Amino acid sequence: MIKESINQSFTVAYRYQVHFTKALFSIANPVLARFFASHATDIMAKALVVVDDGVVEHHVNLLQEIRAYFESLQGIVLADELMVVNGGEQAKNDHTLVDRIIDAVDRHGIDRHSYVIGIGGGAVLDAVGYAAAISHRGIRHIRIPTTVLSQNDSGIGVKNGINYLGKKNFIGTFSPPFAVFNDFSFLQSLSDRAWRSGISEAVKVALIKDAVFFEWIAEHAGALTNRDADAMEYLVYRCAELHLQHIAGADPFEFGSSRPLDFGHWSAHKLEQLSGFEVMHGEAVAIGIALDSSYSYLMGYLTHADAQRIVQLLQALGLPVFHPLLDAEGTDHPLLIGLDEFREHLGGRLTIMLLQGIGKGMEVHTMDASRVLAAASMLQNDFEVQL
Amino acid sequence: MIKESINQSFTVAYRYQVHFTKALFSIANPVLARFFASHATDIMAKALVVVDDGVVEHHVNLLQEIRAYFESLQGIVLADELMVVNGGEQAKNDHTLVDRIIDAVDRHGIDRHSYVIGIGGGAVLDAVGYAAAISHRGIRHIRIPTTVLSQNDSGIGVKNGINYLGKKNFIGTFSPPFAVFNDFSFLQSLSDRAWRSGISEAVKVALIKDAVFFEWIAEHAGALTNRDADAMEYLVYRCAELHLQHIAGADPFEFGSSRPLDFGHWSAHKLEQLSGFEVMHGEAVAIGIALDSSYSYLMGYLTHADAQRIVQLLQALGLPVFHPLLDAEGTDHPLLIGLDEFREHLGGRLTIMLLQGIGKGMEVHTMDASRVLAAASMLQNDFEVQL
């Protein structure tokens, strides 16, 4: 009558739209109004909006525009508090912002059919998304990423997280957003450094997935660094598309060990941390891509010409390929420590994405310490010194 | 070239086994050893074990048995700290226990391929499951429920959570366990009150899903209250089976408003809270079942005979069907306040499960206040007074 065990098995279907638009909160723009209308019920929904202070600083009328836009909508009402919060890594360095949002969810009676809307860079969205994911076991979360990096990478994906004792994304969940609105207008106010730094994630996804996109980036490197809006919009769009395809294709919640989209990231995380986040994520990823491309060459997986092209493209895009913090020697080299930490993070077994060609990734489970250091040396010496 | 939007859509597959056994940590019991062997890799896995102090109190050799059992296993090593934590609702009333577990996850280097194992009642498992779900975006979580209530209901399901400012499960996630081990031996040490109280969830699931199971419970009411182990084991098994079937069947992560398994729960939550959790969850659910059954009769959905049978079965099982805290009048009656809070919790629109027969639930979206109070009166007066 009683079996030894019951096998439970089910699937959960997720669906969300990533919209591409400009001037999202202009009354003339119907994108957001149409979205809310399509989800309207006979119950008034509520929206709690959390905005990165860096965005408010450059868009001084934004809060007013948000209020006016929501006043024009039926079926949804804005919480009477627009939360403006500190942006950058500090947003996710501790539990403070998350606690503030949970408190606001409680005070404003935001329920599972209401919305928590985050507007800002990747760090703010990571913290807001986490707070939304754990409140009432998951409130509808809308992301409005405002940087190149968040529009083409983290902001459209399924992860959130905050740091714990300096450990990046130690706390977080896999929680797909309810919708994403990429508003290209926000990109105009980015500093040159922030504008460029997000391009490295596009180079990354092109290198592991799409040689044609890599060629497109190479052809448009000048336009991109000269802040050509059309070029950047296509870059963001195509990068987002490849990123989304990857997530939908295999293991969206990373139950396995394979994380192709983390190409170039193992060393990037260490460098960001060592620099006290002075090095921007996109810059660290550029260095990480250059390092793993050079390593791929030294291991005989990638031709010298291809590795050199990658490094030269990153340089042409105004991105760094080396950092003085990596100028060290011996077994306590930051890269070797970072590799050990990453191995431990993965539970004892490395899975690292490398390249066997432009547009073609390959996974390995060991890395040769001396060749990692040799790859770093090559980058320090303008790709001239070889093993 | 750039579309207005990209539709992202994917499914995530979940699978876990719920095992039924006795003396799980006896060296002679191969169930857990087989489980770990089937998940072994070339990397040594780690296990962090968190135990409810109420369990340790009644099973004084348990910690020693756990250590000995793990020493007999290959491929997995126990963290050198067995965490014994306060059980009962206090485990989830604030963030303290969750923080302790996150700290231990960090200190012991528990990664996404290692295990956090919770042993205890529903409240401890809710807190441990939540801590596991947010650490590294989800560590493998094994549940070993030790009460009737957790073995047949919360411990085998997909939710976790902690309370926030007295609001039950305000913070939490939907995160299926990696595996569940229901060890019937733990039930023997339960107090009579705890033993009986878990039976109400079985009555609940029988009432909305399975008339045959209801008849079985009615036939075995005497055996169940006399602590017949075989009867209780079948009750736990069949209740778990129906519960699991329901979760797998529709909307496991409750994206919609329908929550059939919450039959009898809207008033139960209020009563638990009002009593300062002096009323046990299962007792409050018994009262909630009696109330909603009586209400179903008063609304003409259920026959008087069926409603009376339900109330009499609960009484025969030694469960309460009324509580003095519900002896009140007027619009500030705790039940009407509770109904309002529940409506707000659902975002403004009620969805309540009622009965249209034994084994047959039906959902409604409004409740008649005067008939709710009349149903309470009936229960107070031994099911004699009617509207």
Automatic annotation (TrEMBL), chains A, B:
Keyword presence, Lyase: yes
GO biological processes: amino acid biosynthetic process; aromatic amino acid family biosynthetic process
Cofactor(s) required for function per UniProt: NAD(+); Co(2+)
GO MF term (any one): 3-dehydroquinate synthase activity
Domain 3-dehydroquinate synthase N-terminal: 83-196
Keyword tRNA-binding: no
Keywords: Amino-acid biosynthesis, Aromatic amino acid biosynthesis, Cobalt, Lyase, Metal-binding, NAD
Domain of life: Bacteria
A family per Pfam: DHQ_synthase
Sequence ranges assigned to domain 3-dehydroquinate synthase C-terminal in this UniProt record: 198-326
The protein, known as: 3-dehydroquinate synthase
Lineage, opening ranks: Bacteria, Pseudomonadati, Bacteroidota, Sphingobacteriia, Sphingobacteriales
